[in-house]
């Protein structure tokens, strides 16, 4: 079996942004691969020209998982995403190839899809801060990119919720433990760049590849690399993740076919444990990433609430 990681690099003689686009971080998520291959064909045929900067396309970031048509090869590539001098599994070895690739770029667009029904949405990182969890200084640029992707919803605060999950489970929240929560975006930010994850729709949604393709074009236009940037659409709904609930055993089940952004009220039953205990919403909000097939010990669903943060032009309007 061929487990080779392939990337395609395009460079203009004129300096500009350096953008890397990933697809197939999870093997059962194919929309990013389809969109990237379409974009690559546009560039190689001359239908689209790179005006300035550098573009790297990675259609399948996890070849083993893609071969198996599973989310993972040996483990989740989008966890513990940082160089490992003694890689113990396939994903660690691929991470060692991808990390220097990402570090050479300024901007990352990571294309994903999800298990259940729901509208596409973007995910961004923290606000500018100098704290210990995820220090960052490019929130305005990251938010501006997310805004131009045209999604109805943008979600923030992944790593905060992950840290809270560790604390609730009684596990260490030191740097080593928190590093397991790092994915491609967290690594990109640690290298001085910024990153947006785009969840393009349900895995088999025929529109998901089109969502991914348009997002690549919008990113290239906003960065003045190709095409013409359009005015951003009306501001999206911005949500902040506040909780994550794990599936504990195979007997745990959701009470309905939840979709991302379905509203819930505090105390509303969302699922039931194998022993019959109800799993209730701890607050008013919305469901995000419900996964009825989650493996025991992994994330079952997230909860989010409306955020007061605003996404604005990094050169004009300050972001709270």
Automatic annotation (TrEMBL):
Reported cofactor(s): Zn(2+)
User: Where would one find coiled-coil regions in this protein?
Assistant: none
Pfam families, A to Z: AstE_AspA_cat
Q: What's in the GO CC field?
A: cytosol
Q: Which InterPro entries match?
A: AspA/AstE_fam, AstE_AspA_cat
Swiss-Prot/TrEMBL keywords = Hydrolase, Metal-binding, Zinc
Q: Tell whether NADP is among the UniProt keywords.
A: no
The Succinylglutamate desuccinylase/Aspartoacylase catalytic domain, residue ranges? 16-113
Q: Out of the domains of life, which is the source?
A: Bacteria
* Example of a GO MF term: hydrolase activity, acting on ester bonds
Q: Which SUPFAM superfamilies match?
A: Zn-dependent exopeptidases
Q: Does the keyword Acyltransferase apply?
A: no
| PANTHER family from the UniProt entry | ASPARTOACYLASE, SUCCINYLGLUTAMATE DESUCCINYLASE
Record-given protein name? Putative deacylase
State the organism of origin: Pseudorhodoferax soli
């Amino acid at each position: 079996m061929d487990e080779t990681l392939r990337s395609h690099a395009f460079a203009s003689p004129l300096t500009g942004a350096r953008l890397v686009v990933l697809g197939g971080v999870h093997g059962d998520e194919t929309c990013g691969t389809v969109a990237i291959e379409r974009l690559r064909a546009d560039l190689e045929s001359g239908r689209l020209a790179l005006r300035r900067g550098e573009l790297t396309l990675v259609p399948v970031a996890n070849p083993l998982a893609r071969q198996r048509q599973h989310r993972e090869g040996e483990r989740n590539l989008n966890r513990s995403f940082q160089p490992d001098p003694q890689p113990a599994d396939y994903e660690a070895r691929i991470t060692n190839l991808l990390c220097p690739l990402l570090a050479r770029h300024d901007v990352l667009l990571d294309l994903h899809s999800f298990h259940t029904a729901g509208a596409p949405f973007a995910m961004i990182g923290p606000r500018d801060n100098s704290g210990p969890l995820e220090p960052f200084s490019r929130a305005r640029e990251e938010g501006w990119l997310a805004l131009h992707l045209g999604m109805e919803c943008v979600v923030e605060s992944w790593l905060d919720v992950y840290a809270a999950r560790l604390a609730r489970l009684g596990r260490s929240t030191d740097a080593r433990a928190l590093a397991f929560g790092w994915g491609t975006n967290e690594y990109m930010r640690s290298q001085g760049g910024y990153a947006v994850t785009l969840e393009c729709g349900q895995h088999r949604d025929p529109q998901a590849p089109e969502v991914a393709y348009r997002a690549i074009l919008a990113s290239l236009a906003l960065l003045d690399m190709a095409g013409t940037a359009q005015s951003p659409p009306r501001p999206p709904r911005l949500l902040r993740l506040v909780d994550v609930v794990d599936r504990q055993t195979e007997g745990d089940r959701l009470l309905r076919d939840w979709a991302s952004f379905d509203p819930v009220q505090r105390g509303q039953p969302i699922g039931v444990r194998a022993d019959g205990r109800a799993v209730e919403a701890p607050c008013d909000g919305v469901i995000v990433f419900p996964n009825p097939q989650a493996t025991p010990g992994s994330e079952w669903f997230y909860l989010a609430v409306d955020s007061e943060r605003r996404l604005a032009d990094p050169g004009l309007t300050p972001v709270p």
